[in-house]
Design goal:
Helices cover 66% and strands 6% of the residues. It has helices at 3-27, 31-36, 43-54, 57-70, 76-91, 93-98, 104-112, 115-148, 152-203, 288-291, 303-316, 321-327, 333-350, 354-364, 368-371, 377-385, 388-425, 430-448, 457-470, 472-481, 487-511, 516-519, 522-539, 548-556, and strands at residues 221-224, 229-233, 237-245, 248-251, 254-256, 259-263, 268-271, 279-280. Strands 1, 3, 4, 5 and 7 form a five-stranded antiparallel beta sheet that branches. Strands 6-2-8 form a three-stranded antiparallel beta sheet. The longest helix has 52 residues, at 152-203.
């Protein structure tokens, strides 16, 4: 891809985001505007904004990268992301809107009448938000690095600056306009290139994606390494180039024999057409045939991992603070349900596209299996498959869409984080407190990006889903549908499920990978959270909040009965 066209596309997206955001500034005046857009967002407009917010780095580049490396088992990510809204629709969308809260901690206090429950929910909401924001910044760094070779922190900083400026200027009202615009931009950016990629694949003879051979270089390919990389060679391969391999300087023809090898940062190795592609150690051994079959992708992703991923993505959606806050912007519970139905359709259309990029990447960008930059397949593929100016323009369009994904999701996360920080941590009410909290909220994940290794962005988002499903999901489901949940039970359940999931996620990120029970903790942490919350509640019946029946009527009675909740200011 031409870096010039790509940079222009990224700058155009950033400028367009700021321009649309300024419109929100013109109509944002009150505290309610900043926190929940005065609860006046229509279902179609809100659904587009949710689609723009929800389709994050994991959706735009991460899913394709995982499918490219691991095969169709990874389709559970988009299935789970979409199905999570179906669960949300059935269980919490309307009651949550009727609660009249600004943030998820507001709901926790309204339901349980306890500042302790609110404080625990606030800490977990911050942890989930920051954990979810990390891959957005990492994905932005990857995009700019692919375009220009700039250090990863540059892209993260650009996203942080643009998002912070938008959020502090107009809050939720401004971000709603921005995210709705960005959904349609992302859908265009990922769909238009697919049409040309499939046409190019057909023109190249529609090469088989499921043959018995290992991935091979389809042309003479130069592979550059930006960091020290450990690779596994399945079949001996001859190469030439410059750099350091296994501690020995290379300057001319060499051979990589079967086994593990270490390639030093700064090396540039040239492989001939038809040579078998070495792979980083984290990617399992797969011929194209085994790659294409479910549950055949190697021992690193067993059946346990599939079930754990399903649990995390199906239930984690309702525990994501930046998703939940969107339902507070609807006028009423009926509008919240309509919004959720529309979101299901918008997400379903988008998620048809990433698997195509992942599959074609096995044929045309196999060198990414060697560097470990599998998330870059969406960015690299258009210019690799389509020659000339057309491929460069398609690559630039994808880069712009990817950057829109980082900006829109980061914007929603910052709104939810600023709401929690201003109301529960800093105790600064009003617009000024919201703006101060926005600046402070972005500094934590921006600093943490320096500690994150090459963990696939979809895996990182999966960890955030696991924490949400294990802690805030039990709080919402049991809090909305059971009158027996006590304040002690709510706190115990959130901690019993959320803390182990969060610790497992942090260990996995700091180690750049890890044991599947830590990398995919939802299968044991989600049941733990639900069971502990309910059992402890049964053991502490005197801690049931007073007036719980009145709260339940507020959550479940239709608005047309006149039982409207009062907005909490």
């Amino acid at each position: 891809m031409s870096s010039t066209y790509g940079i222009i596309a990224v700058l155009a997206v950033a400028f367009g985001t700021m321009l649309v955001g300024t419109y929100g500034l013109r109509v944002s005046r009150t505290t309610s505007d900043f926190f929940v857009a005065s609860r006046t967002v229509s279902p179609w407009w809100n659904a587009s904004a949710i689609g723009g917010e929800y389709l994050s780095a994991a959706s735009f580049v991460g899913i394709a990268g995982l499918i490219f490396a691991h095969g169709p088992d990874m389709l559970w990510f988009p299935v789970g992301y979409t199905a999570g809204y179906l669960v949300l629709l059935a269980l919490v969308a309307a009651p949550l809107r009727r609660s009249g809260a600004y943030t998820l901690p507001d709901f926790a206090e309204a339901r349980f009448g306890s500042t302790v429950v609110r404080a625990v929910a606030s800490v977990l909401a911050l942890g989930i938000g920051w954990l979810y924001l990390l891959p957005q910044l990492q994905g932005a760094g990857l995009t700019l690095h692919t375009l220009t070779g700039a250090p990863d922190w540059v892209g993260a900083l650009v996203v942080a600056v643009v998002v912070t400026a938008n959020v502090i200027s107009g809050g939720m009202r401004s971000i709603t306009f921005v995210q709705a615009f960005q959904y349609w931009l992302k859908l265009t950016a990922i769909t238009v290139p697919v049409v040309f990629l499939v046409m190019a694949w057909q023109a190249h003879g529609a090469r088989d994606l499921t043959g018995p051979e290992l991935p091979v270089f389809d042309r003479e390919t130069t592979v550059g390494f930006d960091s020290d990389t450990s690779v596994h060679v399945d079949r001996p391969v001859v190469f030439h180039g410059t750099g350091v391999v296994d501690g020995e300087r290379v300057d001319g023809p060499r051979e990589l024999r079967d086994g593990d090898h270490t390639i030093a940062s700064g090396s540039r190795l040239v492989f001939p057409e038809g040579a078998t592609v070495p792979r980083v150690s984290s990617i399992p051994y797969n011929t194209n045939e085994t790659w294409a079959l479910p549950l055949r992708g190697g021992e690193s992703f067993p059946l346990y991992g599939v079930y754990s991923l399903i649990i995390a993505t199906f239930l984690g959606t309702m525990g994501l603070p930046h998703v939940i806050v969107r339902f507070y912007t609807n006028p009423n519970g009926r509008a919240a349900r309509r919004t959720t139905l529309i979101v299901l359709g918008l997400l379903g259309v988008f998620y048809l596209m990433p698997p195509i990029y992942g599959a074609l990447g096995r044929l045309y960008t196999p060198e990414l299996l060697m560097t470990g930059d599998t998330d870059a397949v969406v960015l690299v593929l258009p210019s690799r498959m389509v020659d000339g100016l057309g491929g460069q323009l398609l690559g630039a369009l994808v880069a712009g869409g990817a950057f829109a994904a980082f900006l829109s999701t980061s914007s929603g996360l910052m709104v939810s984080l600023a709401g929690v920080l201003s109301r529960d941590v800093l105790r600064l009410r009003g617009v000024r407190g919201f703006r101060v909290s926005t600046v402070l909220g972005v500094l934590v994940p921006l600093g943490m990006t320096l500690l994150v290794g090459k963990v696939p962005v979809a895996d990182m988002v999966g960890l955030a889903f696991a924490v949400a499903a294990s802690s805030l999901c039990p709080l919402l489901v049991l809090g909305i549908w059971s009158t027996r949940i006590t304040t002690v039970g709510a706190v115990a359940g959130m901690l019993a499920g959320g803390v182990p999931a969060l610790v497992a996620g942090l260990v996995t990120i700091s180690a750049g990978g890890g044991n599947v029970f830590l990398a995919r903790p939802a299968a044991w942490t989600v049941p733990l959270g639900f069971i502990v919350m309910y059992v402890v509640s049964l053991l502490t019946p005197r801690k049931v909040p007073p007036g719980v029946n009145h709260v339940m009527v507020r959550l479940h009675a239709p608005e047309n009965l006149g039982l409207r909740s009062q907005d909490r200011m």
